[in-house]
Design goal:
Order of helices and strands: EHEEEHHHEHHEHEHHE
Strand order of the largest sheet: 5-2-1-6-7-8
Distance between the termini: 17 Å
Radius of gyration: 18 Å
Number of strands: 8
Oligomer: single chain
Number of helices: 9
Helix content: 25-40%
Amino acid sequence: MKVSVMQPYFFPYLGYFQLIRAADHFVIYDDVNFITRGWINRNRILINGSAAYITVPCKNSSQNRLICNTLHALNNENREKLVRKVKLAYKNAPHFHNVFPIIQDVIYTDKSSISELAIESIIKTLEYLEMEKSINKSSSAYENQQLKGVARILDICEQEDAATYINAIGGKKLYSREIFLNKGIELKFLNTSLTAYEQFSEKFVPGLSIIDVLMFNPISKIHELLNMYELE
């Protein structure tokens, strides 16, 4: 069993979905502290050849509040602005008509927390890509909120009977292979390859929201991109 854990992000970039692809079981880490100016409630799309942010406003965001307890502040007016921003950016993209309804469905969801809205963006994307995965939320599955940091990750791995834990490459400075091996778990880091694909202009802008990948690529091509990673 290979396990990965990550906070819920709003239409995250390709590497997030590679992490889901690489694991047998994916845990959405929704009961840890909210990260301001992070990827939980915002991401970047392509506007006039450059990366530009799209943001879901939140009512009570604080780094002292759990993600799952943070409410979004979407209303009819700012929902329409957000939807229109995406539409204007991608209305001429080759897969706009297939993908745009997904963005609309997520932004107009009746979910009240930013966590559930972000999770909805992940689930809807997986459904579009026909990727069936075993997924849990940490807030409801493990009853180990008293643990912190690596101790909690190890406990999740042990509860899932994981032989391998896969972390994003940025975790190399945080996690020790030896600590995991002491529990009989192999620690791997996913190194993503943000391979260029055709956008509107010749200059490729990497690392954008999965929205950009969906808008410009057929599903078959996206699966090829999802497989372009290495485990170290």
